[in-house]
# Entry
Amino acid sequence: MKKIFLVLFFSASAIFGSYAQSSADISNSTKWTWFGIDYTHCYFIMSYDFPSVSDLESKISAWNNLVLVEREKYLVKPFKGKTLDFSVDMVKGLNEGMDVKSRISNDGMLASHLESSEIQDIVNKYKIPEDLSGVGLIFIAESYNKPDEKGAYYVTFFDIASKKVLSTERMLGKASGFGLRNYWANSYYVILKELGKTYK
# Structure
């Protein structure tokens, strides 16, 4: 019994120590690279709220572009003190290759279909420019759930060189505003503001 307790104790200590170190790596890094919002794992619920595939395709691009065009609001202001670089071509290419029609569903269970244990595998498959280093930040969108008026994202920090996930957390953002673009853009805006409080 004592041996089992010791094993559990040291395992928990190792996990906590690794988490604490990862959090420190994120906080201590003064330079982050924003990779964008990956929608390739996202389900859009319900179908009558996303009636046009072509319109949704254009909005997926618009949601990423909005962060860049209004970067002062979405990234610079929340993360004062951080030097922000942008490398969005990879995510842009992934999103453009989506079968958007297959991601529109009436199944509410798909709103939470991902597990945090899957995120490392997702990041491992990213083709990241070799000249980049430091800490990367990406939002992996899980669902835009109209009945709940929530956008779900795995907010993921990773070491760019090794692709090791330093932190990933499922976060929900309240959707609001006029028009499809602004309505769902608010869901990631509130999350970015919240992150700004954590990583000052």
Observations:
- The longest helix spans residues 2-28.
- Residues 1-21 have pLDDT under 50 and may be disordered.
- The radius of gyration is 18 Å.
